[in-house]
Each structure stands twice: as C-alpha cells, then as structure tokens.
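Possible regression after last week's pipeline update?

I re-ran a chain I had predicted before the update to compare outputs. Posting the input and the new output here so someone can diff against the archived version. Not blocking, just want to make sure nothing changed silently.
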Amino acid sequence: MNSTTIENISKYEGQEVILKGWLYNKRSSGKIHFLQLRDGSGFIQGVVVKAEVSEDVFENCKKLTQESSLTVKGLVQKDDRAPSGYEILVKEVTPVHIAEEGYPISLKEHGTDFLMENRHLWMRTPKQNAILRIRDEINLAIRQFFHDRGFVLIEPPIITPSACEGTTELFEIDYFGENAYLSQTGQLYAEAAAMAFGNVYSFGPTFRAEKSKTRKHLNEFWMIEPEMAYVDFEGNLKVQEEMVEYIIGRVLENRKIELKILQRDTTVLEKIKAPFPRITYTDAVKLLQDGGFEFQWGEDFGAPHETYIAEKYDKPVFITHFPTKMKAFYMQPDPNNPEVILGADLIAPEGYGEIIGGSERIHDLELLLKKIEEENLPREIYEWYIDLRRYGSVPHSGFGLGLERTVSWICGVDHIRQTIPFARTLNRVYP
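New output (post-update):
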C-alpha cells in the first residue's frame, strides 16, 4: 500500500493509501465520522462509515481529540467539493498520540493577541498554513530566478560594525566590549561581492529597531538584495519587473489550493506582467496635491499616499527619482539633476505599499567621500566600503525586496505578522 501526502493525493485516485498526520476537526452523525485530517502538506476529509469498518476502528475515532496524531488507511475518492478535490473512505485508524483535552485554538473566533501568543499552534490552521506554504513557494521562486540568471548567493554578516541606512533604527549589541549592531541590510556586503562575482544576491534576516505598530512593519524580517556590476538604473528596474512577474507566475501555477483557501482574487495577480508603469517622485507629489493631500516636495510618502498613487494603476508602479536628501548616502544622484537620485520604490497594488527599494549606486570615489562627509558618517568604519571605489570601481545597481510584504500582498493578508512563522514586533518576542 502506498504511503503519500495530501498534496500528492491526486496521483492515487481509486487506490488505497496510508496517510500520517493529525486530526484538525471531527464531526459525527452516529453512523459516520467525518475526520478533517491534515499532514502538513494540506487538508482532506476522511469518511469513516460504521458499517464498513471494524467496531474497534469506529470506537477509536470516538476517542480522537482535536490535534491527536494518527495514521489512516483508506481509499482515495474524487470529491469536487473539497479544496483538494478528493476525500478518503477510511478503512483503518491508528492513533499515535491522543492530544490532551482543551486544545487552545478551537474553531471559534479568537483575538489576534491570543492567536499570536499561540503562534506555535495557530500555524496549524488552514489559512495560516496556506500563507506559510505560499511563502515557501515565493522563497523557492526567488532563488530559482536568480540561479537561472547566473547570480551567486552571498550570505552577508548579521553582526555589523556600522549602520547602512540610519543610526536611529539599529539594535545595538555588546560585541566583546565593542559596540556592534544587528544588520539593517546586507547591501554593502553584497556590493563587495558583486565586484568579485559580477551578479550576486543575499537572502537573509534583517533588523530594524523602529518603534512602529503599523500592519506593514516587523522588527525582524527577511530581505532579498541583489547587486549587479555594470548594470545601470534602467537595467535595475528591468530585473525587478522580471522577478516580480516570475514570482507571481510560480505562485499562480503551484499554489492554487492555498490561494483558494485564502479566497484570494487571482484575477488581480494575473494582470501582473512587465513592464510596470512609472511615475517620478515630483509628478507623484503633484498627483497627491491635485487629489487634496497637503504634501510638499521633499516629504516622505506614508501609507495613504502610496495607496492613493497605487490606485491609479492595476499593476505595481515604480516611483522614481526621489529627492537625494531623503535617501541613503550610497545612492547615485541623477547627472541631469543632482537634487534627485537614480532610484525607485516599487509600490504594490491594493494598498500593500512599498515592496522594493533600489537604486544605481555611487561608483565615483570622490562623490562617495563627499556624501560620507556630508552625512557625518565615521569614515574609518566605511574604509572597506570605500576600497570598492578605489580598486576597479564600475557602475552598479541593486535593490531590496521585503519578503514578508511580498507574501502579504500576494496572499491578500491584512497584517504582515501573519506572513512570517514567528513575528517579532514592538511588543512581541514570544513565542
């Protein structure tokens, strides 16, 4: 008899199989038990008919509590009403462990704080499971996208001696008597790797100590940060478009059941094809002012501003050429207008805000030194970074994609804390 997972159950229609998993829920009608089973790969209904099984099997089903672990043997049958398209006519049930009564997460409504306190159990539920499986698909798609294009994966350090983007958002640690910080970004290190390998990307956790409580912020999250030698501003945007289109395509192709569980409107995602529309920061400011917003050139966009701009398009939109003073010291000013940078943020549709920020990087030594001085950065800490402009400097570009924000948008999830296995927010470090 074949042992299989729920995800692969379609291969065994009309055959008897063995499933190993847990009982998500149960209901009975006296002569039939309906077992809602999960095995980590999906959910399926097992039907236990009293007249078709031994008395011991039927009695064992009565003893099963929510989240008991068990092994099931049964016949795979087509069922178009089920999310998986199948159900199992159960022949045998073998309990592995009968869970204690009083499982914390029942099928009733629970408050978010309670659910986050029990995140280790909440992720077993269909919607949370679907979100994290889509996250896994996006993770794999990103790696495949870059691998197929000859990028080399480089892992930057998590402990760094300096800030990359701003000193107010750093988690400071004692590093054997010296001040060090949890990394805000792997970008500077990826730039060094790009000068060695050409095209690289980093994929890892980053940390921001900002005291934000919005639905779009975490204090620990994952970033994908490519850096590309001999790639200019235009080439940078093209890679971003292709990557986002590729990710969406992979999720639509491979995670249909999960998107259905989340009731995601996939027609919105199906429209995501390159090229993406663009609007300059200056034109976006005018758009906001014409729309009744009190907004001045040089201010940063908030969530309402990004949402208003995004509503004008049915695809992600690039906002380009931000004021130089708003952005990080390493971003290349536009040669035609040094007041703005050759950079862009990619704003997702449906109010999900910025998912990518990127730019062409400064490659001229004197200009980089000038920027470091203007921003009063400690030059000695950046000497290794300055070396990249001393020895074989070339025009180069890169960007950072926030994994959780991307998952949130593709899944249609309200709050980013649901898109990571164990969220770290302003008031949460447990479990």
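Follow-up from reviewer: compared with the archived run. DSSP finds 13 helices and 19 strands in the chain. Marking as no regression found.
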